[in-house]
Amino acid sequence: MVQIWFMDTDQSDQRLEHKRTPPEYMELSELYMKTGVEYFKINADDYLNDKQLNELRTNRGYTYEDEVQADLFLLVHGYLHDFCLQLQITCSEQCLPDYANKLKAFYTEHLHTDEEIRLILDGSGYFDVRDGDDNWLRIQVVKGDMIIIPAGIYHRFTLDTNNFIRTRRYFIGEPVWAPHNRPADDMDCRKAYLQHLGQLTKV
């Protein structure tokens, strides 16, 4: 089961757990209400035939099936978004030159104008997202976890100490993958996200 916890403020190795002392956890049932982030459990060994994933693809318009193997260097620099509508990404220390610095670059807090949809096919890592009070929440993802990060939320990603993850990305319509580093509060997607978050907290 996916775990979610509030992060400490320690600036050491980003791949460590960084739990508060004592640890403070968030229940999965609270994640959407507090952040707008959605979570699904998918059969990663047979994802093409997974009923829930196929329903999500149909209902949300995840329509393209192109696939590539890539490393974090390409991912960080955004080279993939022009030609891949659905991506399979392998990231590890062995495949990535200057691994430590590239991983730090991807750890920069940012947002996107579209949803960020990730299915973990193998390995593990952390998605960090800001809650409504600007706290960092760390979401641990492993094989079979599918996470949908809404447009406009500040977030970041890092590998954990296993130093390996293989993921699949999905896009709605024309693919757009462009990170906008914080501060980006004047962007329309950010304003729309905050409005949506305010509605969620009133429910």
From TrEMBL:
Recorded catalytic activity of this chain's protein: 1,2-dihydroxy-5-(methylsulfanyl)pent-1-en-3-one + O2 = 4-methylsulfanyl-2-oxobutanoate + formate + 2 H(+); 1,2-dihydroxy-5-(methylsulfanyl)pent-1-en-3-one + O2 = 3-(methylsulfanyl)propanoate + CO + formate + 2 H(+)
Pathway(s) annotated for this protein in UniProt: Amino-acid biosynthesis; L-methionine biosynthesis via salvage pathway; L-methionine from S-methyl-5-thio-alpha-D-ribose 1-phosphate: step 5/6
Group of enzyme by EC: oxidoreductase
Pfam families: ARD (PF03079)
Keyword Cytoplasm listed: yes
Naturally occurring in which organism (per UniProt): Drosophila rubida
Cofactor(s) the protein needs: Fe(2+); Ni(2+)
EC annotation from Swiss-Prot or TrEMBL: 1.13.11.54, 1.13.11.53
InterPro entries recorded: ARD (IPR004313), ARD_euk (IPR027496), RmlC-like_jellyroll (IPR014710), RmlC_Cupin_sf (IPR011051)
Top-rank taxon: Eukaryota
Compartment(s) of residence: Cytoplasm; Nucleus
Keywords (A to Z) from UniProt: Amino-acid biosynthesis, Cytoplasm, Dioxygenase, Iron, Metal-binding, Methionine biosynthesis, Nickel, Nucleus, Oxidoreductase
Listed SUPFAM superfamilies: RmlC-like cupins (SSF51182)
Gene Ontology BP annotations: L-methionine salvage from methylthioadenosine
Binding locations of Ni(2+): 110, 112, 116, 155
A GO CC term assigned to this protein in UniProt: cytoplasm
Protein name (Swiss-Prot/TrEMBL): Acireductone dioxygenase
Role according to the record: Catalyzes 2 different reactions between oxygen and the acireductone 1,2-dihydroxy-3-keto-5-methylthiopentene (DHK-MTPene) depending upon the metal bound in the active site. Fe-containing acireductone dioxygenase (Fe-ARD) produces formate and 2-keto-4-methylthiobutyrate (KMTB), the alpha-ketoacid precursor of methionine in the methionine recycle pathway. Ni-containing acireductone dioxygenase (Ni-ARD) produces methylthiopropionate, carbon monoxide and formate, and does not lie on the methionine recycle pathway.
Residues engaged in binding Fe(2+): 110, 112, 116, 155
GO molecular function: acireductone dioxygenase (Ni2+-requiring) activity; acireductone dioxygenase [iron(II)-requiring] activity; iron ion binding; nickel cation binding
Cofactor descriptive note: Binds either 1 Fe or Ni cation per monomer. Iron-binding promotes an acireductone dioxygenase reaction producing 2-keto-4-methylthiobutyrate, while nickel-binding promotes an acireductone dioxygenase reaction producing 3-(methylsulfanyl)propanoate.
Family: Belongs to the acireductone dioxygenase (ARD) family.
